[in-house]
Amino acid sequence: FELVTILRRVALAVLITLIDETSEVRAVAIVIVLLCTLAIHLRLLPFTNHRDNVLEALAISLVIVTFVAQSSVLYTHTSTREATDSLAAEEEGLLLLMAFGNLALIAVLIGIMLWPTVRYCVHQLVYDSYVRAKNPAQAPGSMRLRAL
Questions:
Q1: What does DSSP assign to residue 20?
Q2: Pair 142, 135: CB distance under 8 Å
Q3: How many helices (H) and strands (E) does the chain have?
Q4: Between these two residues, 105 and 47, which has the higher pLDDT value?
Q5: What pLDDT, in 10s, does the model give residues 49-59?
Q6: What is the Cα–Cα distance from 54 to 48, expressed in whole angstroms?
Q7: How far apart are CA 40 and CA 45, in angstroms?
């Protein structure tokens, strides 16, 4: 599946480099590449863990939504040359929504990365407190004082 990822990166780099940024063909071509990547990912489900497959699909989908929203803002500005107040408010709301969506995805990814560590630490705390309650003298980390 890394071949698909490499091909996606190369295709995006070529499209970004060779086609003018104000061209609508560029935006459509980039969206097509991203949609093909999403379709291939959903067809192959390359990761063994279902959670990883879902997160990758969410990440690709968020990239598509973000790019489409940014492109619509760019092409609206270039076609009208002057944004009205209502258009500016819509653009601001759209950009705010994209920012919160990206931040939410980052928070989910960080949470999933940290989840095994948090689960291990909580398990250790619960286990240690259980052992201390059962037999304080044999609890891990407890110190027994010897009578001299």
A1: -
A2: no
A3: 4, 0
A4: 47
A5: 888 898 899 88
A6: 11
A7: 8
Asked if 28 contacts 63 with a C-beta cutoff of 8 angstroms, the reply is no
The string of pLDDT tens digits covering residues 83-116 is 555 566 677 777 788 788 888 888 888 888 888 8
- Take residue 68 and report the two structure tokens written for it: 């489409």
- Which residues have CB under 8 Å from 37's CB, separation 6+? 4, 8, 60
Half-sphere exposure of 131 (CA within 13 A, CB side): 12
Sign of CA dihedral 130, 135, 139, 144: positive
d(CA 60, CA 102): 11
User: How many other C-beta atoms can be found within 10 angstroms of the C-beta atom of residue 48?
Assistant: 7
Q: Is 141 helix (H, G, I), strand (E, B) or coil?
A: coil
How many Cβ atoms sit within 10 Å of the Cβ of residue 107?
Answer: 10
